[in-house]
Structure formats: C-alpha cells, structure tokens
Amino acid sequence: MPKTLFEKIWDAHVVTESESGPALLYIDLHLVHEVTSPQAFEGLRLAGRKVRRPDRTFATMDHNVPTVNPFDVRDPIAAKQIATLAENCKAFGIPLAGLESPDQGIVHVIGPELGLTLPGKTVVCGDSHTSTHGAFGALAFGIGTSEVEHVLATQCLWQKRPQTLQLDLQGERAPGVTAKDVILGVIAKHGVSFGAGYVIEFTGPVVRAMSMEERMTMCNMVIEGGARAGLVGPDDTTFEYIRGRRYAPAGAEFERCVEQWRALNSDEGAVYDRVIRFDVSTLEPQVTWGTNPSMCVGVNGTVPNPADIEDEVERQAVEQALKYMGLQPGTPIQDIAVDHVFIGSCTNSRIEDLRQAAAVVKNRKVAPGIRALVVPGSKRVKEQAEREGLHEIFKQAGFEWREAGCSMCLAMNPDTVPAGERCASTSNRNFEGRQGRGARTHLVSPAMAAAAAIAGRFVDVRALMSS
Amino acid sequence: MKPLVRHRGLVARMNRVNVDTDQIIPKQFLKRVERSGFGQFLFYDWRFLSDGSPNPEFELNQPQYSGASILVAGANFGCGSSREHAPWALLDYGFQVIIAPSYADIFYNNCFKNGILPITLPQAAVDVLLQKALEPGYELEVDLENQVISDDTGWSHAFEIDAFRRNMLLQGLDEIGLTMQYEAEIRLYESRRASSVQPV
Ligand code: SF4
C-alpha cells in the first residue's frame, strides 16, 4: 500500500500499540527551554526518576532572555527560571546552549541550525511552534509540561494517531509575496481550527520552490490553523541545508542518510484523509487586523464591517477584536499607522528573513517616532547577518539591533508594547495582550514589517521594491 | 493524581469562541518554577482592570458564578500556546470540568494530565447549557463512568471520550509509571533501530 510521509515516520516510531488505544511513540529528539520545563524536572526529582536519554535531549534559553544584554536579567523570577534550567541540565546531564554559548537562540531556530533536526525524526518540545521542524520532513509537535516530564523519563509518548491533510499549493507567487503571506492567506481562508486533529503535509510546486527558511515559516504557523504538525517532504533543498551542520551525519554516512531520507517522501497514490487545494496566484502581502491569525486581509484591503457578518458568535468576535484593536470598520489597511516594528521570532528571524527586511530598509530611514527592533533568532544568525553587513543597514536606518531570543513575540522579557500602541510584527500570534497588556499586534512578513517601519504605516512593500 | 469518577458543581458560562491560552494565563505569570498558585492569575487581563481591581463586566466576576467548578465555553477552547500553566490555572481556580464544542489539541491533552475533564458536546447542546447557566445556582452532575451529564430538571446528555484517557482519569493513574512497565519494549525498539537509523 502506498504510504504518506506521515505514515512512514509514524509507523517507524511505534514502540507498542493496542487495537483501539493510543500508540506508544518513540521520540528521537527532545528540545527543552526554560519556561515549560522546571515543573517537569521537579516531577522527576519528586518521583526519584532519571532522564532516560540525555543524549537525545537538547536545551537552550530563549523565552525570558533580555535582548539588550542577555546576562542582565533584572526580573528575579525570570532569572530564577533561567538558573533553574542550567541547574537541571547539569544535574541530569543534558547538553545546554546557555547564555554564554555561541549556539544559543530560539529553540526552533537552533534545532535546524545545529543539524539536530533531521528528516524522518520524531521531534518534540514544550512549545506549540515545534511544528516548525516539520519543514525537514520530521514529525514534530508541541507538548505540555507533563508530557515533557514523560519524555524525559521514558523517551516515549502515548499518542493517538492523527489524520492526514494534504495542503496542495498551486499557482505562482507574485513577487513580494512571501511564505508568511501564503500561510496567513491559508489561515484567513480556512480559519484557526481547520487543521484540528490533522498533520498537514504541504505539497505542490510552490513549496518545492521554497527555501528551508520559507518552509519553516509555513510549518511554524500550522499550529495557528489548529494542526498538530506540518510536514514538507525532504528534497535536495533540505539535504543541502543539512550538509555540514554540526550534529548532522557527515561523509559517506550523510550520503547513506540522504538515500533513506529521499525514500520518506509520500508514495505515488498515497491517500490523505483530507485534501485542500490553495492557489497562491492572486495572493497579496497579508496584514492581520484582529486578535487571531485568521483575522487577516491583503494589504490593499480594508478592515471588515461586523454588520456584514451573519453568524452571531463570529460577529461578536469581530466586534470585540475591532474594539481591542482600536479600528473602525472599513478603514483601509494602508491608513493604519504603527508605533512599533518587531522583526524576529521563530517564524521570521532567520538569515533569509533578515536579508529580505534589509533589502527594503537599505538607504532609507525609519519614520519619525517609530521604535523598530530587529532580534535575530540565534547567535549564529546574528553573526552571519553581521558578516553580511545587514546590521549596519538596519542601524543606519534607525533600527535597534539586538541579541538573540524570543523577545517581543511574547514579551516575557523586557521587550513589550505599551497598552493601546500598535506593532507591525513578524511573529505568529496577534492574541490580545500577547506583546503586552492592551498591545495591538498586526502580523506581517519581514519585508512588510520593514516597509511599515519606513512609511510609518502599512504599505504595499511591492511599491518600495520597484522604486 | 486524584481520580475523577463523578463530579457535581456550579456551572459558569463563557460564551466566546477561540479562547486562547494567552488569555487563560497571560505570559507574565509563566515564570514560576512551581505547578501551584496559578489560579489567582487565571484570565488575568480580562478579570482585572489595569489598576488591579476586578473587572465587573467579566463573566467569571459575576457573583452568581463564584465557586463554579464547571465551565461552559465556545468552540476551539484553549488554542495557541502549549503552556500547561493554562490547565494548572483553571484547576487551581476551581474548575474540574470544561464543556465546549471543540478544543485545541495540546490543551485538550494537558487537561487529562492534570485531572481536568474536558467534555466535548455538539454545539446545540452547548447552546442549551449556555442558556441554562444564566440562571443563578445552576448545577450539573458529571458521571464519567457512564459518560453522561445531567441536571436537576431531568435534562441529560451523553458524551464520548477515548477509553484510554477515561481510564487514566477514573483511576487517577500515573502515566509515567504506566509507561515504565513497557521498559522491555522500549529497549527492544532502541536496539532494533540502532543499526538502521541516523545518529541523534
Ligand atoms: S519566538 Fe515566540 S512563538 Fe517562537 S518559541 Fe519564542 S515565544 Fe514561542
């Protein structure tokens, strides 16, 4: 029987399974960070348990880390959480890319960067955006703290087999339309829970032509469509990205792995539980106007009018969102002025994202009164960007150039947006209060965020690209 | 974990869809390294005004819902972040049962690990309960063993739940302990794969 990529990975990881119940799934790679792990380690201690496979576990610090000076953690509770992770890693023998390590960064940036994330693996982390790693053809999903503890103790998880959804992307992207716009466009059309219970595999020419960075952006945001995980079949683009990475296989071993990895791709005629086709040809750069990622429209569109919505619950949700966002129905997106611009997060903080933003910013200035931040996803991304001179482009334009971390994506560190102020953000969630209490978040691509910084409001980045 | 077999309690309503875990427990409270004490921060940004006083407009601040242990809510409850602090906060505040038309995956999972029962009912049944819960003192009886909820007026509704999870709740089982009984299988799996798989 022809199998999908998902089925091949799943079947290869079942340790044991009962007829009707869940399967015990083996986990190849467990990534750990400071926020969702302390209670898990505490649980192990209380029960006198050990970490079963520290060699399949890897930790870093990202959520709490200040990005002006990472070592200057002034919030004592955050400092305690960071120190607790370091102690736990030491006590349980887990490798850690801590604050002083050149490998430190957002967990979903460094996993791929270090060659830890590989095709065919099962990858988990106590973070919903673990779906990012699916870009490599790895089955990767977020888990809660109890499950973190479970994986630490047993290297396994009880999982109910999810269903498969093929998201076939067809057509041709217009210039200036990025992976971020594609995934936002999909969620705008299909809603924040269309993927519930599914693992989504992206197929078709659009995703084949995408770089690894773009595929990671797509898979990163499948969770915003409610999916368990995202997948892209591994191909030459994948293998070239992996080649030479620190923990990736090397030499003849690498070539042998490439053969295995290639064979992971969904077989001709494999059947998915559901298929969605999405044409990207007419897609514009996207801007969210509301308080979840499906509340989104093209940059030449307008804020919707609740009066036009028939469904009562939905109308109320839109009314509440507009009230929170301080927006009037019918306002053109390009009339919305911003106060802050944030380029960063596990969605869009990789080298290619920074290059795209820098290309827009080059020889221009940030509009007066706007605070604009670039926060690279990892120390290695930062280094690479500095080698290419991107930091100078950003700094000359008036951007702040920061150290690696999650930063303003969820504002657990000192980088927050004040109440009532508006931020163009390359992150993945525009929930109420996400970037600070009362903060108003608009999700966009790195190029669109850069353009908003220059214009002081949302503009179609394509106008800046042609001039 | 305490077993959950039957539960009777006051019902509070939250007629909103897509309630995300960022609302259930805002990120400024995720820095604690303990599992306890999160109830005071539940729905913080909705529950309290910016000066720290209770927001009189927020559902759960209505005096009639004080002491509620069952929450009826709209679709896709618990979407967003994987933070288990969300069920910890709900439980610590006093919620033992949640009833909604649908849940986000990770949140749903996290509930069971903490002895919270998330019941999925069809939208129409949830609508009935949202209406009923307007009445002060409205209580529901939840019977996990027989998979049915009922009230004193004779209204009742059956619910579906995965047998494995039901069993974990009924017995209050330690899942890690259970898995460790499979040590031989895990070891066999590891040795079987060691020869065929790439290194970590
Ligand atoms: S960058 Fe944002 S979404 Fe990504 S892991 Fe950090 S906090 Fe989570």
Structure overview:
The complex is a heterodimer of chains A (467) and B (200). Chain A is 33% helix and 17% strand. With 467 residues, chain A is α/β, with parallel strands linked by helices. In chain A, the strands form five sheets. Chain A has a five-stranded parallel beta sheet with strand order 5-4-3-6-7, with helices on one face. In chain A, strands 17-16-15-18-19 form a five-stranded parallel beta sheet. Chain A is globular and about 55 Å long. Chain B is an alpha/beta fold and 200 residues long. Chain B has a single domain, classed as Aconitase, domain 4 (Alpha-Beta Barrel). In chain B, β6 and β7 form a beta hairpin. The model of chain B has no long low-confidence stretch (mean pLDDT 93). The chains are: A alpha/beta (467), B alpha/beta (200). Chains A and B meet through α2, α3, α5, α10 and α11 of A and α4, α7 and α8 of B. Bound molecules: iron/sulfur cluster (SF4).
Percent of residues of chain B in helical segments? 25-40%
CATH topology name of chain B, in short, is Aconitase, domain 4
Rg of chain B (CA only): 19 Å
Domain module count of chain B? 1
Strand content of chain A: 15-25%
**Class from helix and strand fractions of chain B:** alpha/beta
Task: Report the CATH C-level class of chain B.
Answer: Alpha Beta
What is the 3D form of chain B? globular
List the helices and strands and how they pair.
The complex is a heterodimer of chains A (467) and B (200).
Chain A: H1 5-13, E1 14-17, E2 23-26, E3 29-32, H2 38-47, E4 57-60, H3 76-92, E5 96-97, H4 107-113, E6 122-125, E7 139-142, H5 145-154, E8 156-159, E9 163-170, H6 179-190, E10 198-203, H7 205-208, H8 212-220, E11 229-232, H9 236-242, H10 251-262, E12 274-279, E13 286-288, E14 296-298, H11 312-325, E15 340-343, H12 351-361, E16 371-374, H13 379-387, H14 390-397, E17 400-401, E18 422-425, E19 440-443, H15 446-455, H16 461-466
Helix pairs in contact in A: 2-5, 6-8, 12-14, 12-15
Chain B: E1 6-14, H1 21-24, H2 44-47, E2 70-73, H3 85-93, E3 97-100, H4 105-113, E4 117-120, H5 123-132, E5 139-143, E6 148-150, E7 156-158, H6 163-171, H7 175-180, H8 183-194
Parallel strand pairs in B: 1-2, 2-3, 3-4
Antiparallel strand pairs in B: 1-5, 5-6, 6-7
The complex binds iron/sulfur cluster (SF4).
